[in-house]
């Protein structure tokens, strides 16, 4: 049989076109598998959104599950002289603060030199800085140093006690020193060189000694080397801003508690909205949410309803006791007046309701436990994600097997079509030969 190098040449038939049509028909087997893969990927993404919303709600519940939240204090300052912050040791109270003097840094400048970038030392020597409390700091200065070099050496020396800059007074350049810390004792007082001094300290004209802050708290005199005063009021840090008078009120931090409760309600409502989106159905368009009718979502909703409706034996037993109600659409709603009343007047009962006596006994703790169970490696949500991922992996394998089957089928078709092409070509050759022989015979008979 003659060898056929291109389908259809021997037979004259469009066998390649026929093969293409057969391949398109075979590849239709892949379409439903791809659609199922997309469906599983969509579900995985949807479960991830549900997981994220649950985690956010869990974080909001955790904030309410901390008993120290209901013990925290805040400072309210009337006046511009100070700002203040309170820590866990502070006690409620009101304090009158009068700032008489702010703490300042000591400053000192040198005599002038004609150029800042020309060498002014002829040998290695030591610069000694003298401070108001009698302490000193020695700094090694290299031979051939310029004023800029001396500045840089001082600033590079750890614990020098000063910051150095260069000031041009219009005629000469001066080394200007400023104490690193405020206060009288930390003030730069003088400096000297142990060798030939390139310049001297201008103590007569430029020395300004640092000062301590002076203030009174409820009439009690207080001094501080810094403008951040700690310990004058137990658990309160005063930051002095200017001379003047301010009143500091230390009180329960109702704002922080309200923000935590509001954050809890908003996070739950966001979770409810997300579930609504994932399980929605539009009757007009026929479009459905990715998890419509999903059993994992129904489990989440059921567990959340149980956790939110659980009660306690304290003064506040259910959410409605503190002004939080469950609406018909499943969202939580806050009655601001009732909630503010609970926060302002009974944070102890509020703490017992949300935080309880341990991490698991209050409502927030119970919600946290429920979500942990749902999101754990063997929980309902994680199990749903794992199931969807396994189904997708199985479909990927099925797609690969189907592709191999299609390729095998097409290879068989190519072989069969090649054989058909060869057979038809041979038949055409035989037909042509016989025709020629009959024509020759007819011609011979006609001559006879």
Automatic annotation (TrEMBL):
<keyword id="KW-0966">Cell projection</keyword>
<dbReference type="GO" id="GO:0007155">
    <property type="term" value="P:cell adhesion"/>
</dbReference>
<feature type="domain" description="Flagellar hook-associated protein 2 C-terminal">
    <location>
        <begin position="210"/>
        <end position="429"/>
    </location>
</feature>
<dbReference type="Pfam" id="PF07196">
    <property type="entry name" value="Flagellin_IN"/>
</dbReference>
<keyword id="KW-0975">Bacterial flagellum</keyword>
<keyword id="KW-0175">Coiled coil</keyword>
<dbReference type="GO" id="GO:0009421">
    <property type="term" value="C:bacterial-type flagellum filament cap"/>
</dbReference>
<keyword id="KW-0969">Cilium</keyword>
<dbReference type="Pfam" id="PF07195">
    <property type="entry name" value="FliD_C"/>
</dbReference>
<dbReference type="InterPro" id="IPR003481">
    <property type="entry name" value="FliD_N"/>
</dbReference>
<comment type="function">
    <text>Required for morphogenesis and for the elongation of the flagellar filament by facilitating polymerization of the flagellin monomers at the tip of growing filament. Forms a capping structure, which prevents flagellin subunits (transported through the central channel of the flagellum) from leaking out without polymerization at the distal end.</text>
</comment>
<protein>
    <recommendedName>
        <fullName>Flagellar hook-associated protein 2</fullName>
    </recommendedName>
</protein>
<comment type="subunit">
    <text>Homopentamer.</text>
</comment>
<dbReference type="InterPro" id="IPR010810">
    <property type="entry name" value="Flagellin_hook_IN_motif"/>
</dbReference>
<dbReference type="InterPro" id="IPR010809">
    <property type="entry name" value="FliD_C"/>
</dbReference>
<dbReference type="InterPro" id="IPR040026">
    <property type="entry name" value="FliD"/>
</dbReference>
<keyword id="KW-0964">Secreted</keyword>
<dbReference type="Pfam" id="PF02465">
    <property type="entry name" value="FliD_N"/>
</dbReference>
<feature type="domain" description="Flagellar hook-associated protein 2 N-terminal">
    <location>
        <begin position="11"/>
        <end position="104"/>
    </location>
</feature>
<dbReference type="GO" id="GO:0005576">
    <property type="term" value="C:extracellular region"/>
</dbReference>
<dbReference type="GO" id="GO:0071973">
    <property type="term" value="P:bacterial-type flagellum-dependent cell motility"/>
</dbReference>
<keyword id="KW-0282">Flagellum</keyword>
<dbReference type="GO" id="GO:0009424">
    <property type="term" value="C:bacterial-type flagellum hook"/>
</dbReference>
<comment type="similarity">
    <text>Belongs to the FliD family.</text>
</comment>
């Amino acid at each position: 049989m003659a060898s056929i190098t291109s389908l259809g040449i021997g037979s004259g038939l469009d066998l390649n076109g026929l093969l293409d049509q057969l391949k398109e028909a075979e590849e239709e087997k892949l379409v439903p598998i791809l659609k199922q893969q997309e469906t599983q990927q969509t579900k995985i993404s949807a479960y991830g959104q549900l997981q994220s919303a649950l985690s956010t709600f869990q974080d909001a519940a955790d904030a309410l599950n901390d008993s120290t939240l209901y013990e925290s204090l805040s400072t309210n300052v009337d006046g511009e002289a100070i700002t203040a912050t309170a820590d866990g040791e502070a006690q409620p109270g009101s304090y009158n603060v009068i700032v008489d003097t702010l703490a300042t840094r000591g400053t000192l400048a040198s005599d002038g030199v004609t150029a800042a970038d020309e060498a002014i030392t002829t040998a290695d020597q030591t610069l000694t800085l003298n401070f108001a409390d009698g302490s000193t700091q020695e700094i090694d200065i290299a031979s051939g140093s310029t004023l800029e070099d001396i500045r840089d050496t001082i600033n590079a020396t750890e614990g020098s006690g000063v910051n150095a800059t260069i000031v041009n007074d219009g005629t000469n350049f001066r080394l200007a020193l400023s104490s690193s810390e405020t206060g009288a004792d930390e003030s730069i007082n003088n400096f000297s060189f142990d060798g030939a001094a390139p310049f001297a300290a201008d103590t007569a004209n430029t020395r300004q000694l640092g000062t301590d802050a002076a203030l009174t708290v409820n009439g009690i005199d207080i001094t501080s080397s810094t403008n951040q005063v700690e310990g004058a009021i137990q658990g309160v840090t005063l930051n002095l801003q200017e001379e003047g008078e301010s009143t500091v009120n230390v009180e329960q931090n109702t704002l922080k508690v309200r923000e935590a409760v509001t954050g809890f309600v908003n996070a739950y409502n966001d979770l409810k909205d997300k579930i609504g989106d994932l399980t929605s159905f539009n009757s007009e368009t026929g479009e459905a949410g990715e998890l419509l009718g999903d059993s994992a979502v129904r489990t989440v909703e059921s567990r959340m309803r149980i956790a939110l409706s659980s009660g306690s034996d304290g003064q506040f037993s259910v959410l409605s006791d503190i002004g939080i109600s469950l609406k018909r659409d499943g969202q939580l709603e806050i009655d601001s007046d009732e909630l503010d009343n609970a926060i302002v007047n009974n944070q102890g009962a509020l703490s017992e309701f949300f935080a309880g006596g341990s991490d698991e006994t209050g409502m927030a703790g119970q919600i946290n436990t429920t979500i942990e169970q749902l999101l754990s490696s063997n929980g309902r949500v994680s199990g749903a994600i794992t199931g969807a991922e396994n189904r997708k992996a199985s479909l990927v394998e099925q797609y690969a097997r189907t592709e191999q089957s299609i390729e095998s089928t097409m290879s068989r078709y190519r072989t069969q079509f090649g054989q058909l092409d060869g057979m038809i070509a041979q038949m055409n050759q035989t037909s042509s030969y016989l025709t020629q022989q009959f024509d020759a015979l007819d011609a011979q008979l006609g001559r006879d």
